[in-house]
Fold:
Amino acid sequence: MSVYVCLKQVPNVEGVPSIDPESGFLRADAWYLNPLDAYAMRGALETASTLRTDCVAVGFGGREAEDGLRQALGLGADRAVLAFSETPMAGPGLTAWALAGAIRLDSRENGAAPALVFCGRQSSDVAGLQVPYRLAACLGFPVVSEVNAWKPEDGYLEVFRQAGSMREYLDVDMPCVLALNRGQGEMPHPTLPGLLKAKKKSVRVLDREAIASAQPSQWAAPPDDPKLLRTRNVPDEHDCRFAAGEDVNARVRDLVRMLREDGSLP
Structure:
């Protein structure tokens, strides 16, 4: 059995994102590993060590996704697989289908059934919260989201999850998909020795045909996603104004004046 972790490279969206005038889609000047996926990476490595099995990083996207997988190799992943696609801002259906195919193909070729599949509960760019559920459906696994802690037992997991004020303690059969909240401790970062070791490892790149060949008949083709036509920045129509005054009382009076002028206060 193997432990898998799904990783996504997200664009740098600090400030105002730029839009490619030709394609109409978001143009990123830099990419980085989705923060919740980084915590999932650490959880996958720790669990694989506990189960004494290998850890496999899986990604979906263009060549920018390969950088995140190499970072995973630097952190200690045994293998890395990229489901390659040049589809801009692919939807959750295609994403989950491609990840499931990559997991199936790697599992079949290495003779090790998936024990667990880790991922972050959402990405920092789209935040759709759909991929873990769709991935579990493609794999036929149970799924638990908002996961805070887990403990492998004999054939199942003891899982603790918290969503808002709700706390749940679950026993979940393995194999399963876990979508993690922010983990405990610091976000992992590869060390220089880890990066040097990662250079000796390769990232396997799969095309759409290879992914489709690993799928069962009901998943021969990816589910339809809504077609994304273009993206655009929404202009900020609200002016920022600061209350003036030499002390707190003067600034409060100025704030009340501004609120009355725009009709927020009588």
Remarks:
- The CA atoms of residues 238 and 262 lie 12 Å apart.
